[in-house]
Fold each of these.
Amino acid sequence: MLLLRRSERAGFVPGGYVFPGGLVEEADTSPEMTALVRGISAEWIADRLRLVGADPPATAYAAAAVRETFEESGLLVAVRAAQDVGGGTPVARHALREDLMEGRVRFADVLARLGACIAADELAYFAHWITPLAAPRRYDTRFFAARVSSDSEPVCDAREMTDALWITPSAALQRLAAGSLKMILPTIETLRHLATFADSETALTALAATEVTTTLPASPAGGFAARPAQPRLAEP
């Protein structure tokens, strides 16, 4: 499992360890990007995420998850291609990532250059969290899981991240208890859930079949920093 440490200058969870992720961008909703989300139908994805007829469309969340992971860690997950998606060499992949980060290309262009597409059937959607109503910043976050090859080497985007950590859920929770790993509630609860599985394949199979409900904690602090006083579910 991969955790990234956010910069101390970050506006949200500075110095905290989080999963790769970020905002759905307009380019994630483009027809070109939508056409590159394959493996399962757009209708199935919309039904799974309970976003039938929504704007942005459900496929945009899958695209954003894969794009943000690439931007923040340099890893291409849930991507399928006729050949190695490394773009020929690690240097070539890094150059594509820099072009993407600097706005010179879109993620759809990156995939096209690699002869690749997003394999949505390799993304397991398993959780949906919304920040408490009292939070100064509100986030509506959907969690996906995907396989990563054992020899993958993340390279942090220094503009946002300062460390990349491969760690088991149990080890991460032990470091949390020892006070050496700063995390917020959704990350902690996800780790506790993942720690119940024997291995990644078992976890992915179970997560893909999870009935996802929306969690909207009620926290006196107005954030995710501590266990909510009155956890409750948001209206669908």
Note: The chain has one domain: 2-215.
Amino acid sequence: MTAPTHVAFALSLGLLGGLGNHSLALKLLALGAVLPDLDHPGSFLGRIFFFVSIPLNRYLGHRRTFHGFPLWGVVTVCGLAVKPLLWIGLGALSHIVLDALNTSGVMALMPFSERVCVLFSRKWRFPAGSRKELFLLVALGSLAWAGGYLGALGGLRGALAYVVASPHLALQQWEEKGLAVCSLEGRFRFRTGEIKEGSFLLIGKEGRNGLACLFENRLLHVPQDGEFLRAKLKCAGKRWYALTIRGFAQAETPGFFFDGRLWRRIEPGKLFFGYALFGERPVIKNGLREEF
């Protein structure tokens, strides 16, 4: 396949996987998607890095060892320790899978076996640069567009969480957002049996399964005060200002602090301690020990 098709395939997979907000990961996936063709001097990368491509092609050939699952599998595994290698390796593996759609196939098990690996029967495969590949490129482009939309929702899992409005899935997404300011949009049943619907500002976790959230200016502790029936995650595009206080402090800015068991409000002028979150840059009175 040609370079644009390989890049489109890798990006489609990345966007469907929820990498829409990770531009570096997508760039490395695209790089990995064209890297195996460095063993061909006439390829996109081969023409640029001909001083590497020519000897690589002479000693290894095309679609052989440099197109092998063993080589790029090792790179991907190394990526568990060095993250950029993970995306490069996955991009290269997607290249090998797509090359198995070529009429001639690919020796994907080199250097351990010269067996040619293919996808589907010969009538469903096609040569690189053919009209069928153009159709495939258009289809992948459409898939990438759909993947971008899903990426904005957090990938397939995020889309599922949005559709089914599962509180459990929404909270899993929230935990991956770090210090992003997020809310749960949904329905909450209080211990009294009353059900309220609206936006619940997420503050932080309490213990293993608990959390604190703000609703109608009331600080709720879940599950002590009730439980979510339906919920979708919505992030505001802002981040919390977080700091850790050594000793006690006073703030002129309202916020929340964790006392080791529960989240509590920070009232301006009153003492607080420990880990604290503010919606805006906090103003801490002088003479108090603090650590940002």
Note: The CA atoms of residues 10 and 250 lie 51 Å apart.
